[in-house]
Structure formats: C-alpha cells, structure tokens
Specification:
This protein is α+β, with helices and mostly antiparallel strands. It has a domain of 37 residues. 30% of the residues lie in helices and 16% in strands. The strands form two sheets. Strands 1-2-3 form a three-stranded antiparallel beta sheet. The protein has a two-stranded antiparallel ribbon with strand order 4-5. Strand 1 and strand 2 form a beta hairpin. The longest helix has 21 residues. The chain is flat. The two termini are 15 Å apart. The relative contact order is 0.07. About 4% of the residues have low confidence.
C-alpha cells in the first residue's frame, strides 16, 4: 500500500491510526501476522535460555587488559588537548561564546573525560553584567549594526521575539529573492517527503 501511494510505511500506519483502522482478527491469527500475533511467543527459539553461560564469561572486558590502550587513557586530573580555561572565547556560526565554568562529573573510569564545559554567548554576558539581570523570557538581544562580532553595549538592543521575527522575515527581502527562498523550501519539503 505504501509503495502504491508513494508514502512511507510509517506514514501509512500513522494515517491508519488516525482513521481508527485496525487489522482484522482473521489476519492477526494468520501466519502472515508474524510479530503482531500475541501469545504465541514468536522468536523464543532465538533467545538465550535461562542459565545460559556466555562465551566470554571470565574474560576481561575490552579496555581493562594490559596493552597500549591504557597508555592513552586520561589520567586523574589530566585534561584533553582541546580543553580551554575559563574566560576563553570561541566563534561558532558568527557568534562569540565565552567559557564560564567547568562542571566536574561524578563519573570516572578509563577513557572518560572528567569534566564538561559550559559556554555562554558573550553579548548576553555583557548585557547581563551591565543591567544586573538576565534577558527576560520572550526577548532577544539584537545587534544594531548587524555585525555579530561587534560586541559593545551601545551595539546591543533588547527586543521582543515578535520584533525579531518581524525584522528577519522573508517579506523584507526583494520579491524575487523571497520567491526563490520559498521555492527552495517547497523543493526541500518534496525531497524530504520522497526520501522518508
């Protein structure tokens, strides 16, 4: 049915569920129903039986035996080559981030990096420091000159999400460019629909 309609099996099942369609009792009792049948324990011959002894019982787990693997583990207190100290900055998608803390993890063991990092947007940190409060919910910080790397208090303005959407809408673009963007979106949706 999915092949005939040019849809995914999952899409067909979802639509059938929405319409309240169910498989008949005759179909569920037939051998074709396979895993849909309840109570006949399909697949039991392929499961480990109670009391089964695994083939690797008594062997040491990978990573715990002697060899070169233990040489590359992080030692206690050691940091990886990509670790950066608090106050470091990095640029991602045009936005500058500042590292504000290292959070130590409670997990430990060979090969586990004993910390995670917490980064915040640098312009948010600057605004919060100057105004002594967080950016309110439903609001965003915008750059007046449009340059995301120009992080000065005079260049930041607090606006509502609605205003941000109004500024970034496709309708502010030239008509031809807006049409190309909308056509590209429609094309991408068709590609996604066919590849699903």
């Amino acid at each position: 049915m999915a092949r005939e309609l040019g849809r995914s099996v999952r899409g067909i099942n979802s639509q059938a569920g929405l319409l309240g369609l169910r498989k008949t009792a005759a179909y569920l009792a037939s051998p074709e129903a396979c895993r849909l049948r309840r109570g006949d324990n399909v697949g039991a011959p392929y499961r480990f039986q109670k009391g089964h002894i695994p083939a690797n019982k008594g062997l040491r787990r990978p990573g715990w035996h002697s060899g070169r693997m233990s040489e590359t583990w992080f030692k206690a207190g050691e940091r990886g080559s990509r670790w950066m100290p608090i106050g470091s900055t990095r640029l991602i998608d045009g936005y500058r981030y500042t590292k504000v803390k290292d959070i130590r993890s409670t997990k430990d063991g060979p090969g586990f990096v004993p910390y995670t990092v917490n980064w915040k947007l640098t312009h948010f940190l600057l605004w919060e420091k100057a105004h002594r409060r967080r950016v309110p919910p439903g609001h965003a910080l915008a750059f007046r000159n449009g340059d995301r790397t120009d992080i000065r208090l005079e260049n930041l303005e607090l606006i509502t999400r609605r205003e941000l959407m109004r500024r970034n809408t496709v309708h502010n673009l030239p008509k031809e460019l807006a049409q190309v963007i909308q056509l590209r979106g429609a094309l991408q949706r068709q590609i996604n629909r066919r590849s699903a």
